Structure formats: structure tokens, C-alpha cells
Amino acid sequence: MQKTLLTLLLKNLAITIPTALLFTGLGYLLSFPMTFQVDPMAAQFRRNQGRQFEAATPPVAIETDRINALGQFQIMVSLGGTIAGVLVAQTVFMVHEQHSTRE
Q1: Is 9 in contact with 30 (CB distance < 8 Å)?
Q2: Distance CA 58, CA 19 (A)
Q3: Across the chain, which distance is largest between two alpha carbons, in Å?
Q4: pTM for the full predicted model
């Protein structure tokens, strides 16, 4: 009985961890274009921040709170992706185990 529980746990983790990481990455990639909807000026500033030092153009000032809010938004979208990944993985695992026990 205990070996069966350990086997189920390992199978569950083998599905859940990669799926959660994949969905986290997708959420992070999805958060970039979404930042332009939330605060276009702050998103443009973050995107061009590295280019300012290369081009030697005068720095543009922007409120730090807006940049921080944009970062928090990206983190929330990434965590939402993680939660969605865990839910998908758990659902797939339960359905798969349900079908395999019937056979």
C-alpha cells in the first residue's frame, strides 16, 4: 500500500512540475504584451531602458511606482500561469489514474 502511494506521488510530481514550469513560462511571455495594455508609457520605458545607455541619449524620468506596479503585474500573470499549470496537471493525472484503474 505504501509503495503504491509513493509511486502515485512520483507520477503526480513527474506530471505536475514540468507542466507548472511550462505554464509559468507561458504566463511570463504573455505578460510582456499585456504590460502595454496596463501602462503603455511604463512598458515603453522598460523596453527602451537598455537602449538608452547604448545610444547615449538623455535619460527619461518616470515614476518608480509605475515601474514597480508593472513588475508586480507581470509576477501576478506568471503566478496565474503556474496555478493554471498545476490545475491542468492535477486534472490530467486524476483522469489518467481513473481510466487506468478501470482497465
Answers
A1: no
A2: 44
A3: 69
A4: 0.76
